[in-house]
Write a structure and sequence with these properties.
This protein is α/β, with parallel strands linked by helices. It contains ten helices and twelve strands. The longest helix is centred in the N-terminal third of the chain and has 29 residues. This is Fhu operon transcription regulator.
């Protein structure tokens, strides 16, 4: 069974005569009759019965016609969607984003991408790294911006340069700050920690024989910044989150174990459309610009 046979079958059912169907399809009658006979043999049923006025569908033929129409319609829809996807016309890129990538979206380079593909839309779904990757595996999103560490099984990954964790000091804490801050110095201050890294922070302090003063724990890098700004403590967040912010002092933490990377990830088996490929290129270019 193939799409050509289904198309022939539907046309004959609509015309009620093989001669009229052959004329409409621009083929000779014998090959058309042969294709329908082959289809009936494969299905093991008779699809048409002859009458004095031509041919009509049997009960089995009526049932099969419903499915044949669905198959042909879905095939045409898929072809139409794929052509549109190739051109980016009316397409939507569903992007998973984390709070610590907020400075990267939107950007002028992604705006240029939208101009290159008229009608291209963006749907942004925000969550933490684990939530975003779960949505990616469930095919709720197409591509995601995440942060290490994470489980990359089954994913294509493009990593960006590592960055240090930063200590964000509110104004009243900023006296006598150095170019970097050590773990030994951090334990002197109340800390606002981002839950994503809490376990990593605690283990590092424990191995160093230090006891931190955890004042606040939250789930969002932006929330950590707000609490630091209000004087509750020194926020520990990835340094890129605050690279354009002047409300507080940003001091890199001298701890290699706390370095982290942003990454762009997508399923290995996902259809890589031209506009999705261009999104990856545009985002990567934006990352290079931010880094420089």
């Amino acid at each position: 069974m193939n799409l050509k046979q289904l198309s022939f079958f539907i046309t004959i059912a609509e015309e009620g005569q093989i001669t009229a169907a052959a004329k409409r399809l621009h083929i000779a009658q014998p090959p058309l009759s042969y294709q329908i006979k082959q289809l009936e043999l494969e299905l093991g049923v008779e699809l048409f019965k002859r009458t004095s006025r031509g041919i009509k569908l049997t009960e089995e033929g009526k049932l099969f016609r419903k499915y044949a129409l669905q198959i042909v319609d879905l095939t045409q829809l898929a072809q139409s969607k794929l052509k549109a996807a190739k051109k980016g016309v009316g397409a939507t890129i569903v992007v998973g984003s984390i709070s610590s990538s907020v400075k990267l979206l939107p950007s002028q380079k992604l705006r240029n991408l939208q101009l290159n593909y008229p009608g291209l839309k963006f749907e942004i779904i925000e969550d933490n790294t684990y939530g975003v990757i779960e949505k990616l595996r469930k095919k709720m999103i197409e591509i995601a911006i995440v942060r290490t560490p994470f489980n990359g099984t089954g994913l294509q990954m493009q990593y960006f340069p590592s960055e240090p964790m930063a200590a964000i000091f509110p104004r009243e804490f900023q006296a006598h700050l150095k170019a970097q801050i050590t773990l030994q110095e951090l334990v002197k201050w109340p800390l606002v920690t981002y839950r994503r890294f809490s376990s990593q922070f605690e283990q590092t302090f424990l191995r160093a024989g230090l006891t931190p003063q955890i004042a606040v724990t939250c789930d969002d890098a932006r929330t950590a910044l707000r609490w630091a700004d209000c004087g509750y403590g020194v926020a520990l967040i990835p340094s890129s989150v605050t690279h354009t912010d002047t409300l507080h002092e940003v001091v890199p933490v001298a701890c290699h174990a706390w370095e982290t990377q942003l990454a762009l990830v997508w399923p290995k088996e996902h259809l890589m459309t031209p506009f999705l490929r261009d999104f990856i290129t545009a985002f990567s270019s934006e990352m290079c610009t931010k880094k420089n």
